[in-house]
Amino acid sequence: MTLVRRLALLAWADKNNAAIIEDDYDSEFRFHGRPIETLHSLDTSGRVIYAGSFSKTMLPTLRLGFVVTPPSLREAVGVAKFVTDWLATARDPRFNRPYTDLVYQPMLELLAYMRANGFKTFIVSGGGIEFMRPWTEKTYGIPPEQVVGSSGVTKYQMRPDGIPVLLRERKVEFVDDKAGKPEGINRFIGRRPVFAFGNSDGDKEMLEWTAAGSGARFMGLVHHTDAVREWAYDRNSPVGRLDKAWDEALRRGWTVVDMKRDWKKVFPFDP
What 3-state class would DSSP assign to 115? Predict the structure, then answer.
């Protein structure tokens, strides 16, 4: 990449509040002239995360990598690393598989079908947004800016060295559950959904909000009924209870998917 294009990319990242991950290990290998400056060395706004590996420049057997992170992104990168490191080693005790394997095959197929037909897909979950963002794009094809979740309070601060940072406080800012889901959709997405799926009473208000819009709408619930391939629970479950939302779905004619009856495969690894 030429110097002009590098400067243009940095200007674009600064204008769009974006981060750039640079792995430019071969820019120094030139037969004539001085090496072109890395994006990291040209960056004056704290936009570039510089990654490298000594296995590329020294020995393939030297499996040692590094990341140079600007102060403004250091905490976010640290959280992402913690989450991805945990997901790389943690395994579900029942299925003995990584948690990222335990995603629903019909859900993946539906997301892909909708994107192929011009829809923009989002995750709206009660889970912590900082926990979900590092892995949802690889697993579901949904980038971090299209994830809405529960979050803590963050505070902007200008450091003495002139670098702006966001500090996380030990306070809950937003809980993305029940009435919080349509509130979060309005706050972070800004459009009422035309298609929404849930699986518990925590999704009832989101489905009601979707149904209240004009034109064609789809509201759906997944009923966990397969104790062999997954789990079976509904009205009396202390976690993920499906009771009031189920009653409303039946009353209003929303789609209710019976996992045991309707899904040929639950997880991608199922035969």
Answer: helix
pLDDT in tens, 75-116: 888 888 899 999 999 999 999 999 999 999 999 999 999 999
Predicted pLDDT at 27:
64
Are residues 125 and 258 part of one domain? yes
Q: Quote the pLDDT of residue 25.
A: 65
CA dihedral 155, 73, 151, 104 (to 10 degrees): 170
Predicted structure pTM score: 0.78
CA dihedral 12, 13, 15, 17 (to 10 degrees): 160
40 φ/ψ angles, rounded to the nearest 5 degrees: -60, -40
Give the pLDDT score at 135: 95
Same domain, 121 and 220: yes
Tokens encoding 21: 């991950």
Do 235 and 173 lie in one domain? The reply is yes
Contact 256, 249 (CB under 8 A): yes
Dihedrals φ, ψ of 138, to 5°?
A: -70, -35
Asked whether residue 102 falls in the same domain as residue 208, the answer is yes
Judge whether 86 lies within some domain.
Answer: no
Residue in 225, 216, 205 with CA at minimum distance from that of residue 266: 225
Structure tokens at 49: 């995360």
- Identify the domain boundary among 52, 68, 84: 68
Are 172 and 63 part of one and the same domain? Answer: no
Kindly state whether residue 267 falls inside one of the protein's structural domains.
Answer: no
Please give the Cα distance from 116 to 26 (Å, whole number): 36
DSSP letter string over 34-48? PPPPPHHHH-SSS-E
**57, 165: one domain:** no
Which of the residues in the chain have pLDDT under 70?
Answer: 25-31, 56-57
Look up the domain containing 44 and give its range.
Answer: 3-68
